[in-house]
């Protein structure tokens, strides 16, 4: 059902940074479409239960047909989109000798899905008004590099290039496109790292701690709700780890 409320679609919105962003965007007045995949269904439902106004969107972004079905669902349930947050991601952690072509392709499939969703959702941005926000969650390691994550770092660097190019294509329609590049954030993605890796990471962060997902969500909310003259840029949120 359509309403006059602005609508934000959050991919990977059922866990970690995506979940925090879904909650903060809902708090800030958006109706939030929470995209998720099967394995995190319970978590996505729990996020939905905590927000004032939202709906669930089950779709695997590696599958173009599922993206198309999700778009039809968004059109039916919301009728418009004001903000797209591409937060879904996976990180495959192996050194170059152990990484397989299948690993590489899986990693690449997520950024391909984010690109395809963005391309296809644009028409919903145009229905009501000539403006909007697209925010991509990239990563510090797309800039600094990281041992054991070559395909992940390549895809995150690609996402920032996507941000910069899309900004130029959409500026004439007043759709602002930015990346938020987190450092190391306390989410399911980092919770499973081996203890010695966690210690090495902590030792390297000037602020001496991992970030909270809400600290990323606050920056996303700023871009979604208030920033009007920022586009094509990467905002680093990493406790001093890397300055861009
Ligand atoms: P997370 O694992 O909780 O979140 C990733 C989400 O993406 C999950 O909900 C997962 O189900 C979803 N997802 C994975 N494959 C998908 C697919 N094919 N289709 C749809 N959804 C899919 O971890 P997170 O840390 O919250 O990660 C969120 C984003 O932040 C990711 O893009 C990640 O790369 C990025 N990031 C995380 C950190 C960190 O330290 N946690 C640092 C930099 C960037």
TrEMBL record:
The keyword Oxidoreductase applies. One of its GO terms (biological process) is fatty acid biosynthetic process. InterPro entries: NAD(P)-bd_dom_sf (IPR036291), SDR_fam (IPR002347). GO terms for molecular function: oxidoreductase activity, acting on the CH-OH group of donors, NAD or NADP as acceptor; quinone binding. Signal peptide: none annotated. Keywords: Oxidoreductase. Belongs to the short-chain dehydrogenases/reductases (SDR) family. PANTHER family: 3-OXOACYL-[ACYL-CARRIER-PROTEIN] REDUCTASE (PTHR42760:SF133), SHORT-CHAIN DEHYDROGENASES/REDUCTASES FAMILY MEMBER (PTHR42760). This is 3-oxoacyl-[acyl-carrier-protein] reductase. It comes from Syntrophus gentianae.
